[in-house]
Amino acid sequence: MxxxxxxxxxxxxxxxxxARQADLIKAIAIExxxxxxxxxxxxxxxxxxxxxxERQGFAVQRGIAGMTTAxxxxxxxxxxxxxxxxxxxxxxxxxxxxxxxxxxxxxxxxALALRYTLSPDDARIVVFGTPAEEQGIGKVDLIEQGWxxxxxFAMMVHPSxxxxxxxxxxxxxxxxxxxxxxxxxxxxxxxxxxxxxxGVIQTFNSVNALRQHLRQDVRVHGIIxxxxxxxxxxxxxxxxxxxxxxxxxxxxxxxxxxxIACAEGAALATGCTLxxxxxxxxxxxxxxxxPFADLYAAQLDYLGLVESDSPSxxxxxxxDIGNVSQVVPTIHPHVPIGDGIHIHTPGFAAAAGSERxxxxxxxxxxxxxxxxxxxxxxxxxxxxxxxxx
Length: 389
What we know:
The chain has 389 residues and is an alpha/beta fold. It is built from 12 helices and 12 strands. A 6-stranded mixed beta sheet has the order 1-2-4-3-5-11, sandwiched between helices. A 4-stranded antiparallel beta sheet has the order 8-9-7-10, with helices on one face. It has a two-stranded parallel ribbon with strand order 6-12.
């Protein structure tokens, strides 16, 4: 086991390296913010992150897992494999209103600090460029194609209104319903028609009734994606898209089946035929690894930073980081970029490009680099984290 004074020397070197490269790290976040790209279209963003790492000694593989904007950048020859996850996609119209510019820049910042602090035998530092988090695609496909098979630990930071070590996420299943009926003139020959939109509306009514009997953590919400073409034509086709969320996969599956039953009942009641399309990429709930989270919390103490006391199970969304947490010990702490802001809003997007957003990038880079140093030099702790004790 490495002695504390030795680790302190390495940690001070890592902090000095983040300070030395602070302008570059923050500039990455600013450039990503100024040029937002949606999921699987992050060509400029991916190139910026990968090129930066390649110039500083990382071996880069581009276009992995069948995604042109996904990449793997690695440094080191032996030791634990520590993955730093660099999200980069933005939202349509809202830009970086989830702050992925901060996530990508912080991952690169931590990687650069470790590159110039650790020896190649201390650890294998791997940065994954993970596209399309907003669509729940990137990390799921990387896992399915084996890119996490040789990873021992994974981490990333996410911007927020509060500094949190643990933030819980719900599992998510996506379902599309398409109802087919028969068109007719809505006034002259209504008896000849079968109204597909009635099937959609009845589905929403049934789901609304179902909500009364769902567990508190469950969320079901949807939109109508096709409601017909004109008021005087009975819609022969109508469609809707639902998300189902829950904090465990068993409940997620159960509620998904009940929502599908709502649509099937609506089709039966309206005389429509129904097509059900389930997205194969089910997002898993986040699996908390307490020893790993405690290790990150210790770095906050080292840096003199205070965690918010807000509950970890409030205001939960979903993310493909949950899938990573199911296969590799994972942490997903939050770094603060502004008070009283909420993700997926114009205010959050503005905060992600602000000076405080830049400080959050550096906080994430520092804390993740320090966490990785302890992982490298505390083998007994690594085993505890892997066991989840």
